[in-house]
Write a structure and sequence with these properties.
Number of strands: 5
CATH architecture: 3-Layer(aba) Sandwich
Number of domains: 1
Number of helices: 6
Length: about 140
């Protein structure tokens, strides 16, 4: 199963993003398939934070539209919510130590640990995730 990074959702949702069509088509194919996928509320909350931010987008999303998008992901018949389990903190801490993570890398390590613990392939446009050993990674680039 897969777990999408917030950037995949942002690029697929925000029409002003450079590669909107590519990511929107990719996500549409996932949502129209019979493929199970994971989501986590920390990524969905990050999506809402970024999509509605006027410092990031010239035309930020209205809050209700951003939440409508998260509802599509959460309520999808093939989606499964994941949360940190018993080994998450140990994996997270190891990833942080092994990569000497600081700043924004801490959040990335947290997400990588979620995917590792769940056995998920992490789908992202961010090549910075390559540094996390044990992470099944798919870089999705146009």
């Amino acid at each position: 199963m897969t777990l999408c990074d917030v950037n995949i959702y942002i690029y697929a949702f925000m029409e002003e993003s450079t590669y909107y069509k590519f990511y929107n088509n990719w996500l549409s194919k996932l949502l129209n398939s019979d493929t199970y996928f994971f989501y986590t509320e920390i990524i969905l909350s990050s999506f809402v934070r970024i999509a509605t931010n006027p410092k990031i987008f010239d035309s930020p999303s209205p809050l209700n539209k951003a939440f409508d998008f998260t509802k599509i992901i959460k309520d999808h018949h093939m989606s499964n919510s994941i949360m940190p389990g018993a080994n998450h903190w140990k994996i997270f801490k190891e990833l942080c130590k092994n990569t000497k993570a600081i700043g924004n890398d801490i959040t990335d390590a947290y997400l990588a640990a979620l995917a590792i613990e769940a056995g998920a392939e992490f789908i992202t446009a961010d090549k910075g995730f390559k540094k996390f050993n044990g992470l099944k990674l798919k870089l999705l680039k146009p």
